[in-house]
Design goal:
Elements (H helix, E strand, L loop, with lengths): L1 E9 L3 H19 L2 E6 L4 H7 L5 H9 L2 E6 L3 H4 L8 H11 L4 E7 L12 H4 L3 E7 L9 E3 L4 E3 L5 H17 L3 E6 L5 H14 L6 E6 H10 L6 E4 L1 H14 L7 E5 L5 E4 L16 H13 L3 H16 L17 H14 L1
Parallel strand pairs: 1-2, 1-3, 3-12, 5-10, 8-9, 8-10
Antiparallel strand pairs: 4-5, 4-11, 6-7, 11-12
This protein binds 3-isopropylmalic acid (IPM) and magnesium ion.
The site of 3-isopropylmalic acid has 3 residues, from helix 5.
Length: 353
């Protein structure tokens, strides 16, 4: 296979983890006889500094050229506490999602047995938890009509039937491949938009008789996720609820630095860690590269390269078992490894196994 990859390292720790993701990608492609070609592009704060635009046209064109985008992180504290800033790095991410039509954000929540003790939740509650949140990514409040006045401001949570149907179809496709349980998370007791979600989902449920479809209010879902995370298999929800719930999901497993995600839709799919740019750690070689490396596994699997994806996952598991870990997940009393060292260990493992 010939793969063209747009690499968008972005800000903060982005470039450091990006480099490890690219090395892993190259090692897998070499091992399995695939050709891979990279093109680097600017986004986020770096792009604002250099071009004034957090997602410049040239970056968009590079994304269109590519079969997949390997994205790292955007965000810079220079913009965070300045409500008057006209452009922000995060707008680059939103522009990318919108322009590439990436309406489905797939965020798996998996536990790693050797890291269960790091979870703020009791081990017996989370052991075996394994679900995937499918977050709608190009609609809702993020992109609805907005007004920002001095005395009144609003964001509109608008959804069309077509937008709801297409994200639910993605959810059902996942449910059919998994434990055949789909939970639609909404706020239908209060929001009109949620009532449309529920109506459309009820109509669609009959087309998927093998899947158990149930409905849960988002406040209840937030609670259930920490009381009984094993309840969930596939969760489908709107943009804002998905943003909030996936942060919650990422900490229950005790390993925020380990969770990858995929955003797919109309144009080039994007693969990225769910964590942010962690500006304080920039340049220190301490960031965990595993979420980025596991994003490479998701990328490969997206193109049907299942064995290749497995080679990456096996190498990641081996590194955890061998205690080759960045500081935040180090074996108590054991050595710690840097971003580059963990990446190099994994790349080496892939080459040798
Ligand atoms: C995410 C992030 C983004 C979002 C921010 C950076 C705009 O939190 O990908 O979850 O809110 O979607
Ligand atoms: Mg978020």
């Amino acid at each position: 296979m010939n793969l063209k990859i747009a690499v968008l390292p972005g800000d903060g720790i982005g470039p450091e983890i990006s480099a490890q993701g690219v090395d892993v990608m190259s090692a897998v492609c070499e091992k399995f006889g695939h050709d891979v070609e990279y093109s680097y592009a600017l986004c986020g704060a770096e792009a604002i500094d250099k071009t004034g635009d957090p997602f410049p046209d040239e970056t968009y064109r590079t994304c269109l050229w590519a079969d997949a985008v390997l994205f790292s992180a955007v965000g810079d504290p220079r913009f965070d506490n300045d409500p008057t800033a006209k452009v922000r790095p995060e707008q680059g991410l939103l522009a990318m999602r919108k322009k590439l039509g990436l309406f489905a954000n797939i965020r798996p929540v998996e536990t790693f047995s050797c890291l269960l003790h790091m979870s703020p939740l009791r081990k017996d509650l989370i052991e075996g938890a394994d679900f995937v949140c499918i977050r709608e990514l190009t609609g809702g409040m993020y992109f609805g009509e907005k007004h920002e006045g001095d005395d009144r401001a609003y964001d509109t949570n608008a959804y069309t039937r077509a937008e709801i149907e297409r994200i639910l179809r993605v959810g059902y496709a996942y449910a059919l491949r998994r434990r055949k349980h789909l939970t639609v998370v909404d706020k239908a007791n209060v929001l009109a938009s949620s009532r449309l979600w529920r109506k459309v989902a009820k109509e669609m449920a009959s087309q998927y008789p093998d899947v158990t479809t149930d409905f849960m209010y988002v406040d209840n879902a937030a609670m259930r996720m920490i009381q009984d995370p094993r309840f969930f298999d596939v969760m489908v929800t709107e943009n804002t609820f998905g943003d909030i719930l996936t942060d919650e999901g990422s900490v229950i497993t005790g390993s925020m630095g380990l969770l990858p995600s995929a955003s797919t839709g109309e144009k080039t799919p994007v693969f990225e860690p769910i964590h942010g740019s962690w500006p304080q750690a920039k340049g220190q070689n301490i960031a965990n590269p595993l979420a980025q490396i596991l994003s490479v596994a998701m990328l490969l699997e997206h193109f049907g390269l299942i064995e290749e994806g497995k080679a990456v996952r096996d190498a990641v598991n081996a590194s955890l078992d061998a205690g080759v870990r960045t500081p935040e997940i180090q074996v108590p009393g054991g050595p710690t490894y840097g971003t580059r060292e963990v990446g190099a260990w994994i790349t080496d493992y892939i080459r040798k196994h």
